[in-house]
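Two folds, back to back.
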Amino acid sequence: MNRKCFTLLMSMLIISFMVISCKKTISTQSAVVAEQDSSDFVNLGDVIPDAILEIRYYTTYNFVGARVDGYLQPVALMTREAADSLRAVSDELKKQGYRLKIYDAYRPQCAVDHFVRWAADTTDTTMRQAFYPDVDKSLLFEQDYIMAKSGHTRGSTVDLTIVDARNGKIVDMGGTFDWFGIESHPDYCGNPETFEYIPQEEGITEQQFNNRMILRKAMLNHGFKPLDSEWWHFTLKNEPYPDTYFEFKNKEVRNEK
């Protein structure tokens, strides 16, 4: 390659790099403004007053073993659209004798970043017996238990279960929230598409599977889609911010009446 061609090639590479850098800078600057805007979010406690809030990441009882970054108050936030749909779910389940129990809804990006840092520290296994006794922590990224982005950060995803309205006891789902394992999969011991129980030598009971399906049916009836690895996790199908990951901290938001 002669000197003239080399100089031309280097010039083209430099220009390309500058264009890419400029685009990334503009994209980042635009995203920061959007990600901090909580104006389209509401408190689930206001929308569904009888929902029970047990915001695990505000406490130390979670797989991290500490309060997670960004959880300044034990509140559950969602976009208005998702909250309205969840209220319809609550209304349906109340007729069947159940109340909703919310573990998590909106999750700021800084909380997801906290999960990533925690997962990278393979020496911290404080909560292993409670949440991931059968999974080597070094495999959490590889097996997609921990990811750098979460649907929760878009504001229309919720983690929840149901409670018996008569006695206030949590309904037996055959497994706990945030359990890392196949036992958490909706198709564990059954077909969640047909709601049919499939007994296994070792697994959850038919009643436990049916309890999971009670929640699933109600969520599907009102526009939510499930996740194939967590029976408690649902996202609004027509979520208003499918490409936006918000960063504002998890605390009460004020909305105009």
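---
second:
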Amino acid sequence: MAELLSYEHVDISYGESVVIHEACFSLAEGEILGIVGESGSGKSTVLKAAMNLLGRDGLVTRGDIWYRGRNLPDLPVEEQRNIYGPELAMIFQNAGSSFCPIRRVGVQLQEMMAAHGCRDRESVEEKAMDILGKFGFDAPKRILDSYPFELSGGMQQRVGVAAAMLLRPRVLLADEPTSALDVTVQKQVIEEMLLARKLFGTAILLVTHNMGVLRAMADKMLVLHRGETVEYGRTVEVMAHPKSDYTQRLLAAVPRLRR
């Protein structure tokens, strides 16, 4: 598989504090890479660096983040605009906060598509209804005509995944997309993301605390501890034979039902 996204010896800092040290990994076409670790280990920071969402104080201070031969942190703003959305998209832990609560979902999707050159309202609505239908929504038109507050948290999250896929990005960055959901909706969101890979060949970079989600989705996994990589490899191999003490403790902390 061709390599899409790669981090090469990346350090990320906030002010004078280095929070990510020597991050090295790659994501191939159609591949799912899961990033795990305890809270504060730097998982979300790794994703935000690729999307230029580190804020005023955050900075990639060393190394390169390559996307199809282009170093993302060095790109001019206009070129970033052409990549973020159409080629790299991101969904957050609470997708509902990405929507304006007092404007209908369909109107916001129209504006998002117009910002990337898709101004034919009928065509955009048709695409939106098509992808909502593919993702299992029984009444796509009702979803588009709804205000975000009229949808449940789980429904908002699922609509967020569908919205991110409207432009058919090659890479989807998902930051804890299931952690605030109940088990039933978690399953639906996981199925949506796996369907996105099946339908569009989308590669996914997934941050999660949930080892069950990781086991169900990820081809490879990266374990972070205090900003440093302690384990990286195929999910089945790392989970069956963890090499680092930290990974062993992390896996041992997962609750197990006993009969």
